Amino acid sequence: MRTIPLGQSSLQVPVVAVGCMRITSLDKAGAERFVRTAMEEGANFFDHADIYGGGACEELFSDAIGMNASVREGMILQSKCGIRKGMFDFSKEHILTSVDGILKRLKTEYLDVLLLHRPDALVEPEEVAEAFDTLERSGKVRHFGVSNQNPMQIQLLRKFVKQPIVANQLQLSITNATMISSGINVNMENAAAVNRDGSVLDFCRLNDITIQPWSPFQYGFFEGVFLGNEKFPELNRKIDEVAAAYGVTNTTIAIAWLLRHPARMQPVLGTMNVDRLRDCLKAADITLTREQWYDIYRAAGNVLP
Ligand SMILES: NC(=O)c1ccc[n+]([C@@H]2O[C@H](COP(=O)([O-])OP(=O)(O)OC[C@H]3O[C@@H](n4cnc5c(N)ncnc54)[C@H](OP(=O)(O)O)[C@@H]3O)[C@@H](O)[C@H]2O)c1
């Protein structure tokens, strides 16, 4: 599987990550088959969070695969913390406690990557820095990143945190592409020009922070999958046409569209279906033309000035 460096780090990662938020939709045997297939196909980067299934997703993952030292060596594990019931919490105490819980559930001694899941309005970056130092010194976490953060929030952290921020996980799909469309429509009098994220896409490129698009097949906030959906007839016609040209499925093209962006993003897949997973992985070998990329972008209703 093709790899990219994660942010400024020396860690080489597959161009797609396997998200585990939905793994409890499988039973233990199904989860084992899914995780083994991913690893056999070279997709050995797994994305977790302490809140997925209230911890049940991390537990099922490690139980199903029979986590031990040799299994662990063959995979790259990322998890997230900072979301609590009714609040966000980037306090040192919460970060440290959360990581201990994550390591216990994943049955591992270290995380390759820890992300802060969603911005905490009460963040005290000095505390985050202390937590990261403690985790790095103890060997519990090797690399650090964020999720759903804008450039200023990242800069605030970077003023105190000495480890490089290697990744920013953000919602992005063909139908949720505001971070791309605001950059195309700069200063225009149309809705697409609204810059909701402080130019996070360009900021991450400038600072070598890998963007990890989450929910690459969803429209809205988990409203459903846009592929094959009658709400998006033009988009599906175009994707199907491009898929036919490459002899692949529409699933492959949806991921190839994200991978075509030169920011070298690492989409986080949500499927728990091994055939769909394989279709997603095929995208690593496809480079859409500029025309195909823009045709798909416009077919989703995105406008050009
Ligand atoms: N940082 C954050 O705030 C955040 C938020 C949400 C998610 N995430 C991460 O991102 C990952 C992906 O999120 P997601 O699960 O919402 O992403 P997704 O890949 O957009 O959605 C996956 C869901 O769509 C279904 N699906 C139906 N048709 C599909 C098709 N043709 N291709 C692919 N999937 C199809 C899948 O069903 P099947 O299983 O049957 O294929 C699955 O239920 C999560 O696992 C998690 O790791 C992060």
UniProtKB/TrEMBL annotation:
This protein's GO CC annotations: cytosol
InterPro entries named among the record's database cross-references: AKR_Detox_Biosynth, NAD(P)_OxRdtase_dom_sf, NADP_OxRdtase_dom
SUPFAM superfamilies: NAD(P)-linked oxidoreductase (SSF51430)
Pfam family, any one: Aldo_ket_red
NADP-dependent oxidoreductase domain: residues covered: 17-296
UniProt xrefs under PANTHER family: NADH-SPECIFIC METHYLGLYOXAL REDUCTASE-RELATED, OXIDOREDUCTASE YDHF
UniProt name for this protein: Aldo/keto reductase family oxidoreductase
